[in-house]
Amino acid sequence: MSSSTVIQVNDNNVKFDCPQGSLLGVWTLNNDGAYNQNTKGNDCWMEYSFTGTGVSVNILGNWDHGVYSCQIDDGSPQWFNANSPNIGYALGCAVSGLANDKHTLRVTNAPMSGWWLTLQNITLTTGDAFAGSKTFTSGWAAYQLPSTLASPASASTVTTVTTVTATSASGNHVSTGAFAAVAAVLATLFVGSTIAAVYFWRP
Description:
The protein is an all-beta fold. It has strands at residues 3-8, 14-17, 28-31, 35-39, 45-52, 54-61, 67-72, 78-81, 88-96, 101-109, 117-126, 135-137, 141-144, 162-163, 166-167, 173-174, 185-189, 193-198.
């Protein structure tokens, strides 16, 4: 039988940090009735190590929030976009189907700086049957990270931003055609590269 435990983001086992040279690289703990941690820093990350069969984290969506990734253990990061005209928390990412063993969840703000990432709490699941393969789900739209941003060392000018179909928190499909990328402009980051990655959406 499965069971769930909510972990607050001020728990000592939840780690927050930013890489050296991250623009605006600092995490801030807030309490507006429930604890949350937020940052504008590019590549800033949260890590939570646990033993269980699944894990999820709530992430805030708003007009000034943007792209982030979720990664479990040494797997490939899965990218999502919390940019939304309406403020509110949704399931930022959930990973299920894990073996009942030690795992590490890592949530990372995008290489593009200046967009908020706000995390509210983590839910740990134990006792689920091992499915043989893990599954990622999210209440925010999936996002295709431009290949030139996949590694800061190889970053160069980016001229397009692409989204892919995903299911929104309300259960509606959010597709590429539902949004218009109206700008992609250059921003100089202190990582030795110039990256174009400012984007805006409208319904």
